[in-house]
Design goal:
43% of the residues lie in helices and 15% in strands. The chain has one domain: Nonspecific Lipid-transfer Protein, Chain A (2-Layer Sandwich), CATH 3.30.1050. Strands 3-2-1-4-5 form a five-stranded mixed β-sheet. A hairpin with a 7-residue loop joins strand 1 and strand 2. By secondary structure, it is of the alpha+beta class. It has eight helices and five strands. The radius of gyration is 15 Å and the shape is globular.
Length: 175
């Protein structure tokens, strides 16, 4: 796998998230469910406004690279506290996914992970994200059921509603 750009090493949160994507066993297992090697997500950090990164999935693993993706599936913004919390998720895919979803739902600005779904539900389904959610197991499915998304239809309604959101100010390029 290619070495990460040196820019990652300038910031501990950027480097930690890049390391999680490359090395965390739960993330590596999860990435195998996403069947399209062109799948990408844009990534921002709350403490580095206007600076875009993108997560690129490839056959040799996941990489966090500088710059925006041309056509992301998801857009995330991570505060430093959320990166630290994800790094503490010790278990399998379910533990990592639950930590991610709890961050998305958090009211604490140091823990809240902002998420915008950019891809359509059919594209997410084709790329394997739905298989990933199912593979994460009953604990994640139970969390989803408690939040109101039961089954594929509920998940589709959630994705369709989330896609209506316009990009947030933190996604817009800074001049």
């Amino acid at each position: 796998m290619r070495e990460q750009p040196e820019a990652d090493r300038e910031d501990p949160q950027v480097e930690e998230l890049a390391r999680l994507f490359r090395e965390h066993p739960a993330w590596r297992a999860a990435a195998r469910y996403v069947s399209d090697p062109g799948a990408t997500s844009d990534v921002y950090f709350s403490h580095r406004p206007g600076e875009a990164w993108h997560l690129e999935l490839a056959r040799d693993g996941a990489r966090l690279l500088p710059g925006r993706s041309t056509d992301p599936d998801f857009v995330f913004r991570f505060p430093p506290g959320a990166v630290r919390r994800l790094a503490q998720a010790d278990g399998g895919m379910a533990d990592f996914a639950i930590a991610l979803f709890e961050g998305i739902e958090s009211d604490d600005p140091e823990q809240r992970i902002d998420l915008r779904i950019a891809a359509s539900f059919p594209r997410l389904l084709r790329r394997g994200y739905v298989k990933l959610i199912l593979a994460a197991g009953p604990r994640l499915l139970a969390l989803g059921a408690r939040r109101g998304w039961r089954g594929i239809g509920g998940l589709r309604r959630l994705v369709d509603a989330a896609r209506r959101a316009r990009p947030d100010d933190w996604e817009l390029p800074r001049e």
